[in-house]
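A favour, since you know our structure tokens better than I do. Go ahead and set the record down below.
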Amino acid sequence: MSWPTVKSTWLDKVIFLGTGTSSQVPAIHCVTGSQSHCITCTDAMKPGSKNRRFCTSLLAIGSEPGRPDTSSTILIDCGKSFYESALRFFPPNGLRKIDAVLLTHPHADAILGLDDLRSWTMKGCIQDYVDIYLTQECMQTVAQMFPYLVDTSRATGGGDVGALRWHLIDANTPFQAGPHQVHVQPLYVEHGFVQNGRMPFGCLGFRIDSMSYISDCHYIPSETLDKVVGSDVFILDGLKMKRHTSHFSIPQAIACVLDVSIRHAQRNLPPPSLALITDITHGIEHHDFSAQLQSHMKGLTAWLYEQNMDVKSASSEWWKTIWDELENEEHERLQLSVSCTTDKAHPLVPSMHLAYDGAQIYMSKNRL
């Protein structure tokens, strides 16, 4: 199923370098036993499988309207599978330079590939340096893990390390990224807990032009969702069907997308054209679950039409009348309390899909 074209002013396209968890897919324990009963991991071993998932990461590529000389490639997260995903997806897409790296948080799946950026900067082979944007909290972990990247005088061995320029950002303050000063809005969320569960672990998503991207979260503050309003594509964490301490479940992700659509309607704005789920475990098989997700969204849409409900008459959390998210999580299946379907679209129910590695979102420029 094709995805709708997304409206934008700066973005030209988005490429998913990875859509999996820190463990990636396939899981090693599923493919090394005498018999594998995991259909996701079995399929993920096949070339070109949409179930093969590197650590969650994304490229946002864009330029100022009519100014191809201002083209920028922005990488969000540089985790432990980054180099392999770059080898797989950079050459066929004609990509080479990285103009900025945005880090969401200091976990292995977001930062362990930073050392590999040396391949872009050694002896200026591709570029002289790479700009990295991160919070002070993230910087502290990076400095502990990669002291030689922060202070190159601490390099050992041959001394060939990446030439990285570090830029500290505030979780609530917009900033300009890269040589062409691309506007970026941080999106503060919570991603698990620290101090034995006493304190939420802060994490960032990012809004770039018409795209909002939140890959790791168990809770999104209302004020952050307000910053998502105006986006035409919303990419969101959806680990699996069951609830998790540091990630959205897929039912939570769906409910969040519907919430954002209501927020758009309340401001007389069109809701997102497209919503995508990322950071997915091997518990979700791409093809089977995609069909289940489409059936679910069609059911929600059909019910709105049966109730003659439009963007003005719909109440907040209207979907709870026919959908029990917690029950779906418990039974690990999307199901409404009523049976209905339609092929029509409704402005309160965006086109929603599972993202997959190598997938691209195409933009219609100058349309916002």
The chain has a mean pLDDT of 95.
